[in-house]
């Protein structure tokens, strides 16, 4: 006769701290790290059973894959500084050889150099639109685009409509749109504003930088980007509590009896019930998850309205691992583009020191919607066929195949980050980072410089920590 052991549940914990951070992604961990170095007692509550947020590395069928964010570009000084501090090495993305482009006419072109192999007229239009976007990005800037005199004008017209107002050349419009809509915001160009597009460009220094894959996708971290969060978490030790999804945040008047501050309760995860009482809280999760928490009292009306105008994009990040990087044998870099293709971008994503070859491809927005309606095998077949159109039939048979689907992740629900709908940025942008009483906000979705990137997450984490440290007095 066998006896089943009763399930054990962690005992409820009550913790007092100076600051409680919700979310152990790069933003939350940078906030906690900065606060801890300044002498604050910090507790970090993370819903998942891992750190890293939207950065995640895993081994799938024997292949190391970066399932989440991974790129480092030369302008990302906050990230580069942290990598140096943590002793992390980087390596360049493979880019030797020719690139591949499939035009809207379906013709495949192998080319070298910076310019796309399109007609002289189309190329001239791409350059002209790029100059206009570069000028707007420089004039409006990434920090306060909503404050510019033209903010409302640019925010109440879709990027698609704006592009068509600049040029009648469909291929030029599609190419420019690819690098902001499909490549970055991962939403259809009709679903966000021209101002949101300008912010995306300004956050990277210019639209020209977004067009330059050798700049924006320059390097990767040896051991994966998640290892950066893991290193920060290791420094914080037991201050990081995993498996602790936050359900309730009491603040201000609700805690008048204990001198103000916050009381945060996490429950329903592997950590059991954890309650943290602190002077301040930093919410370091994407804005689309703010509403997963019950606030007592409720957040102000302005916050409720703003959060309803922010939403995640959708992208399938496809990983295909081959016995060898066969494209290199054919003189190709693995870099491919096709604005009208199912897989609009492909890159050589081979790991540092790996003899095998890895390709990464991206299927965005409405194309991703259509694919997710299919059975997994049909989806795989169509995706690999699209890559094979770019790189040949050897692409059809990878040893390892994996699709990163962040839209199904309970604690993310989309990718790469949240952005405003039409009209939302100029209307609510100034309120995104404004603390509500003792509650501060930090994530890549709120960044100016480094918007949607790990660099922006780190900047926002440091900024939130500095806000907290700037006022150490108890909340009345």
TrEMBL record:
E.C. no: 1.-.-.-
- Identify the cofactor(s): FAD
Say if the entry is tagged with keyword Zinc-finger: no
Entry's Pfam families?
Answer: Amino_oxidase
- Molecular-function GO term, any one: oxidoreductase activity
Q: Amine oxidase domain: which residues?
A: 27-469
Report keywords, A-Z: Oxidoreductase
State the family named in the UniProt similarity comment for this chain. Belongs to the flavin monoamine oxidase family.
Q: Output this protein's name.
A: NAD(P)/FAD-dependent oxidoreductase
Which species expresses this protein natively?
Sinomonas halotolerans
């Amino acid at each position: 006769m066998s006896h089943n052991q009763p399930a054990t549940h962690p005992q409820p914990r009550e913790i007092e701290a100076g600051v409680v951070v919700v979310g152990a992604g790069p933003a939350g961990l940078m906030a906690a790290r900065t606060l801890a170095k300044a002498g604050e007692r910090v507790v970090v509550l993370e819903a998942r059973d891992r750190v890293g947020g939207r950065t995640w590395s895993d081994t799938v069928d024997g292949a190391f894959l970066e399932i989440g964010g991974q790129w480092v570009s030369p302008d990302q000084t906050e990230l580069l500084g942290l990598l140096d501090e943590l002793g992390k090495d980087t390596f360049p993305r493979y880019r030797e050889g020719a690139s591949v482009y499939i035009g809207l006419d379906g013709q495949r072109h192998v080319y070298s150099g910076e310019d796309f192999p399109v007609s002289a007229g189309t190329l001239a239009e791409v350059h002209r639109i790029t100059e206009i976007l570069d000028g707007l990005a420089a004039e409006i800037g990434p920090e306060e685009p909503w404050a510019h005199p033209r903010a409302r004008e640019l925010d109440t017209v879709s990027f698609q409509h704006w592009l068509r107002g600049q040029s009648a050349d469909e291929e030029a419009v599609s190419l420019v749109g690819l690098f902001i809509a499909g490549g970055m915001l991962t939403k259809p160009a009709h679903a966000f504003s021209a101002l949101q597009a300008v912010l995306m460009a300004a956050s990277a220094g210019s639209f020209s930088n977004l067009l330059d894959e050798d700049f924006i996708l320059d390097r990767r971290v040896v051991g994966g980007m998640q290892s950066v969060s893991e290193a920060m978490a290791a420094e914080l030790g037991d201050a990081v509590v995993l498996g602790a999804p936050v359900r309730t945040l009491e603040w201000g008047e609700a805690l008048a009896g204990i001198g103000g501050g916050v009381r945060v309760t996490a429950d329903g995860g592997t950590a059991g019930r954890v309650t943290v009482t602190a002077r301040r809280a930093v919410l370091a999760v994407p804005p689309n998850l703010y509403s997963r928490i019950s606030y007592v009292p409720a957040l102000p009306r302005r916050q409720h309205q703003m959060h309803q105008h922010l939403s995640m994009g959708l992208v399938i990040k496809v990983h295909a691992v081959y016995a060898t990087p066969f494209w290199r044998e054919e003189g190709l870099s693995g870099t491919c583009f096709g604005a009208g293709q199912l897989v609009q971008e492909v890159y050589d994503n081979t790991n540092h020191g790996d003899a095998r070859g890895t390709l990464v491809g991206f299927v965005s927005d409405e194309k991703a919607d259509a694919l997710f309606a299919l059975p997994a095998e049909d989806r795989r077949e169509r995706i690999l066929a699209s890559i094979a159109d770019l790189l040949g039939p050897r692409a059809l048979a990878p040893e390892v195949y994996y699709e990163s689907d962040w839209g199904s992740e309970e604690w993310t629900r989309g990718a790469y980050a949240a952005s405003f709908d039409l009209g939302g940025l100029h209307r609510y942008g100034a309120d995104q980072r404004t603390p509500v009483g003792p509650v501060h906000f930090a994530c890549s979705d709120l960044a100016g410089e480094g918007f949607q990137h790990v660099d922006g997450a780190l900047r926002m984490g440091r900024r939130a920590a500095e806000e907290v440290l700037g006022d150490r007095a108890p909340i009345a």
